Amino acid sequence: MTSPFRHRNPIIAIAVFLSLVTLAVAGHLRLPEYRSKPIDFTQLKSGEYLLQLGLTRRQAGSVKIGFNEQAPPPRVGVFGNHQFGYFDRTAFGPAGTNEGYFFNNWYANLALPEIRDYLAWLNEIGKLPTDTIIVQVTTPNNDNGGHIINYNGELPRDLHGKYTEDRPQQSWYERAYLRFNDLRAEVKIILNYQSVLSSMFPGGMGFLRSSDELCIDLTRNPPHHGLAGRIVNLLPSTLASYAGELGRQVVLWRDCSGSAKLQGFKGDGSVRVGYFGTNLLLNQHRKEIWLKPGDEDTIIRYMLDIDRLGRKAGRQVVFVVPPVYESENFVTEADRIFTRALKQLDSRVIVLDHRYQHQVDNFITFDHPGPIYFQKLAAELAAKNLLP
User: Fold this and answer.
1) How many domains does the chain have?
2) pTM to 2 decimals?
3) 280 and 134 housed in the same domain
4) Which residue in 96, 166, 207, 233 is a FRET match for 372, CA 20 to 30 A apart?
């Protein structure tokens, strides 16, 4: 039997595809922008946090960029990705309680070239941390070499390529290649399912302020009793938030109860422990390798650039390579490449290589160290006189 679709004009399929892409682009352009009117993190007290509702990773990260552009810089600043999400001020003991001492700028999957651009921008506007810059390098065995030297395109576009110092004159081919990579990263973000879904319900996006105290109250008095509450409780959080104050209370209750945990920034930029899960499994490595022999020079160049930027600005720069929860002597090709890069790195560059600190109490999940690890890290930084 001949299919009725067999002789259909392929132009129809192309038209449908282009229509969907156009809708995705239009939706992406509608996404709210939070950088120009950022949240003031200093207003969050201990036990309070900002819950992110329906935001893309770029939107969530840009809130911190906007805050850094307008607020006085901290004495100690962390720059990295989700592996350092749980690094908070309590790791520093009494010093961490001082206002303006510490801020965690962790952001999605930032890699070294993006951190370099981010720092170059903060240096340009006079907003670098005043004393110590801690740069987290993605553990090679986490994403099998991923998110170390690859540009993920999650910074705002005007920050791309901000680092220009000592960069040789680029050929037209190199410039075209960089622009192509920018475009590819932008398309990837636009077509990401999270961006598409968020653009469909922009009214359900934003931040909700919550606290440990509020959670105690909502747990005692759940908001989903009664017919209206039960109906709202059936909706996804982005849709429930359209239901006014009742919807807001339902979303907050879900977060407090753990039935629909939202990412919550604390006042120091860190995230609440548990957001990335609590299931600690051994050796959750990715199979696809992202590094190749010869990438050693690229790793070294990015680290030297960041170190040089900090030194010229009179800041202490410390690179930290955190561990992942894996078996002893678990070595990959990506790990070998990274080790060779560190051995060739200028000895003046300070690197705390913690790849082999496999003690179970260091971790919340495979690739997310917890409070105990960060207390050890802060103690080591202090012992080596790397903190103000």
Assistant:
1) 2
2) 0.87
3) yes
4) 207
